[in-house]
Amino acid sequence: MTTVKILAIAGAGRSGSTLLDKILGQEENIVSVGELDHVWDAGFRKNLLCSCHTPFKHCRFWNDVFDEAFGGMHNVNADEIMRLKLSVDRAIFTPSIAIPWLRTPKYSRELNIYVDILSKLYNAVHKISNTRIILDSSKSPSYLHALRLAKNTELNIIHLVRDSRAVAYSWQRKKLITQSQEKEDYMPTQNTAQSSLQWSVRNVLTYSLKSFSPSYQLVRYEDFVKEPKTILANIMTNLNIDNCKFSCLTDQSLNRTEVHAILGNPIRFEKGPICIRADMEWKEKLETREKFVSTALTLPLLFAYGYLQE
Ligand SMILES: [Zn+2]
Q1: Where are the chain's structural domains?
Q2: Ligand 1 center from residue 63 Cα (angstroms)
Q3: How far is the CA of 206 from the centre of ligand 1 (A)?
Q4: What CATH number belongs to 4-304?
Q5: Distance 14 CA to ligand 1 centre (A)
Q6: Secondary structure of 264-310 in the HEC alphabet?
């Protein structure tokens, strides 16, 4: 049986993962599934739009995947899986997922059931897409620690980092999204203290995936938008794939073909060329007090990632 190769974009939210996902997802060797950890809520409960512009439950691709994995969408008890997810897959449980002797017998039983569901899901995506690499932008370290336990899979990590002040600014902005048929909705917001603390915790926990993964690469968003072809080539070299041409990248723009990604930034719905450029609006518009709070709460990692030396 062929090992299912997963390439996961990991790290804090609002770090530019949708843009990276969108570009990598254009390659013929790669199938992008978006933030698949949200499929139970965003897909089954809310029936939000797949990035192919079809409501999730009517998307042909996802129907084929769930037919293969579970004998059909009607056999999936999303409420039960959400309950299971809450009891095993949260940031606070990351040590228990990573280190077996920290698990209680009850936790082990529930984690095994959860991992078995992920095994079926990702093996089905591999079979239906008939593509070499599954690109997943779930980002959550606890989810990815659980996913690396899935049968017949190999989890490779891109740790995507963006300046915490830029992330704080992004969390403050009210962005309209259109992901359901019935109503327009907004992306969630957070204040600077919340987003900065979350940024630190997420990045530390993401680093913990390094020793468990066959390949781990730290990518700074700011470097990626400056030299996308170099960064993409490095990512592929790390995966031992040397035939990617990234022909969608011409003069730092890309052309979009149909993918079936779950959730993500609204840019996933956009078609046609997209200009890749550094979004540095936060430098002008984030208030000085907010910059101070974010810098103070994320100082050690800002130094480690080289943001304070620039
Ligand atoms: Zn779709």
Answers
A1: 4-304
A2: 9
A3: 28
A4: 3.40.50.300
A5: 23
A6: CCHHHHCCCCEECCCCCHHHHHCCHHHHHHHHHHCHHHHHHCCCCCC
Residue 19 CA, ligand 1 centroid: distance in Å? 18
What is the distance between the alpha carbons of residues 158 and 139, in angstroms, rounded to a whole number?
9
Note the pTM of the prediction, 2 decimals: 0.90
Phi and psi at residue 49, in whole multiples of 5°?
A: -70, 135
Tell me how far the alpha carbon of residue 261 lies from the centroid of ligand 1, in angstroms.
Answer: 7
Q: Is the CB of residue 34 less than 8 Å from the CB of residue 268?
A: yes
Ligand 1 center to 53 CA (angstroms):
7
The mean per-residue pLDDT over the stretch 39-45 comes to: 94
Tens of pLDDT along 1-24? Answer: 789 999 999 999 888 888 899 888
Q: How much distance in Å is there from the Cα of 288 to the middle of ligand 1?
A: 42
Cβ atoms of 307 and 163 within 8 Å: the answer is yes
Using one digit for the tens of pLDDT, what is the confidence trace for 269-303?
776 666 677 778 899 998 999 999 999 999 999 99
Residue 55 Cα, ligand 1 centroid: separation in angstroms? Answer: 8
230 alpha carbon – ligand 1 mean position (Å): 30
For residue 258, the CA-to-ligand 1 centroid distance in Å is 8
Give the single-character DSSP code of 7: E
Measured CA to CA, the distance from residue 70 to residue 89 in angstroms comes to 21
State the Cα–Cα distance between residues 90 and 112, nearest whole angstrom: 15
